[in-house]
Amino acid sequence: MPSLQLLLPAALLATLASPALAQTAPADTVRFYYKHELGLTMSPQFDNLFTTNRVLPLGLLYKHQVRPGQAWRVRLTGYYSRHDTATAGGAFYIQEKGPEARAWEVNALVGYEWQHRLGRRWQWHYGLEAGGGYRNEHRAYTNYYYDPVGFNGDGPFTDTDIGSRDLSRWQVQGRGFAGLSYVLTSRLRLFAETAIGVSYRHQKSWGSYTTTVDNPNYGVSPGGVYRDEIVTTWHVDYYPVQVVGLTVIL
């Protein structure tokens, strides 16, 4: 039975080879189909690139693949900014912003995305995310106003105001996003996203100041407080680059 003798080794070889083929055949798909992904992100702020108020929010991104081509995601972003001293003003008026001017913000969003392959290393994705955030600002200042003539012959004077303005804002938002990723290795990938967002913001601002005059011929005001201002607004924003980042498949 020579045919049976040949058939049995061939069947045994096929049985032993099938697990290896199952592991090596989908080499390309391993890069895209996974369970967990964790990454670091940056969110460029193009409106601040050429000012002293440069802000670069950093964040974390986590994805959980629920099936090939679909994943839940959680994204956290935030920043802290401390401004350098700057001056601005016009004739007889100078404003100085002290080094205490600072701002911080944090946002958390949960979303769902759909993924499609464009080749062996490229993939594009799109989806929706929603969440909320909080922002806080404190801006110290010193205002100088110089009058070289004065009033009623009482002579020139310099009025000095020292104070601060504060702001707090919370928001809820939803975003639609689309992105492109490139596989560096079987575990690492680079990606970038663009997005359009709709947000509802509730903002409150307040502050106080003290006043001094260097001419004793004038009365001195003790200062005062800024009236609390509460503003609620809707915003539609376009983010050319919502995030760029590097992720690792766990």
What is the fold's blueprint, element by element?
Elements: H1 2-24, H2 27-30, E1 36-42, E2 58-67, E3 70-82, E4 86-90, E5 93-97, E6 102-117, E7 122-147, E8 157-183, E9 188-213, E10 224-249
Antiparallel strand pairs: 1-2, 1-10, 2-3, 3-6, 4-5, 5-7, 6-7, 7-8, 8-9, 9-10
What would you say this structure looks like, in words?
The protein is elongated and about 85 Å long. It has helices spanning 2-24, 27-30; strands spanning 36-42, 58-67, 70-82, 86-90, 93-97, 102-117, 122-147, 157-183, 188-213, 224-249. It contains 2 helices and 10 strands, in the order ααββββββββββ. By secondary structure, it is mostly beta strands. It has an 8-stranded antiparallel barrel. Helix content is 11%, strand content 64%.
Strand content: over 45%
Note poorly predicted spans: 1-31, 49-53
Counting DSSP E segments of at least 2 residues, the number of strands comes to 10
Biggest sheet descriptor: 8 strands, antiparallel, barrel
Percent helix, as a range, is 10-25%
Judged by helices, strands and strand pairing, the structural class is mainly beta
Helix and strand sequence: HHEEEEEEEEEE
Helix segment tally: 2
Strand order of the largest sheet: 1-2-3-6-7-8-9-10
Q: Shape from CA axes?
A: elongated
Arithmetic mean pLDDT: 80
Calculate the terminal CA-CA distance, rounded to whole Å. Answer: 52 Å
Tell me the radius of gyration.
Answer: 30 Å
